[in-house]
TrEMBL record:
Keywords, sorted A to Z: NADP, Oxidoreductase
Record InterPro entries: L-xylulose/Carbonyl_redctase, NAD(P)-bd_dom_sf, Sc_DH/Rdtase_CS, SDR_fam
Keyword NADP: yes
GO biological process: glucose metabolic process; xylulose metabolic process
Assembly information from the UniProt record: Homotetramer.
Listed transmembrane segments: none
Descriptive protein name: DER reductase
PANTHER family: D-ERYTHRULOSE REDUCTASE, D-ERYTHRULOSE REDUCTASE-RELATED
Entry GO MF terms: carbonyl reductase (NADPH) activity; L-xylulose reductase (NADPH) activity
Gene3D superfamilies, per the entry: NAD(P)-binding Rossmann-like Domain
Amino acid sequence: QCPGIEPLCVDLADWGAVEAAVGAAGPFELLVNNAAVAELQPFLEVTRKALQRSLDVNFGAVLHVSQIVARQMIAQGIPGAIVNVSSQASQRALRDHAVYCSTKSALDMLSKVMALELGPHKIRVNTVNPTVVMTDMGRINWSDPHKSAVMINRIPLGKFAEVDDVVNSILFLLSDKSAMTTGSSLMVDGGFLVS
């Protein structure tokens, strides 16, 4: 448990509810956008429902929550940091990941534009781009030993990421230790993108 932290449960696709909940909770100095869905379908079988849900959560929710928080930071004159959790899939095509890869690529570019526009307000924006992380979602999509072996064989460090690997990278990007870092993507991929 973390004293002083009050969780808000809200449907991120409901912009009105998000505006009310997040708007009433501020002001903020730090923001981590971590919500995501991975509805894996072959390109020729992508459904409108899966596309819309992925766009709403992986991209639209980040844009909207970041707008609310950044406006509060600017109004209060608070310098801040925003970290958007992206993926190695933003940089490399993966089978059955047409929508996921595309939304994460869009998130990377959104983060760069945010960094450009929010920098003059002393708000830094970066992404962390992990490989498969052993969360519930990671276990669901990568539980097939054949599928996971193919991916792990492409990671020079020979393993998927644990939650703490990503958390520690996020903490670095939120901290003053990264005071001159904005518009960057920190790969937490065990070397996947260099293989």
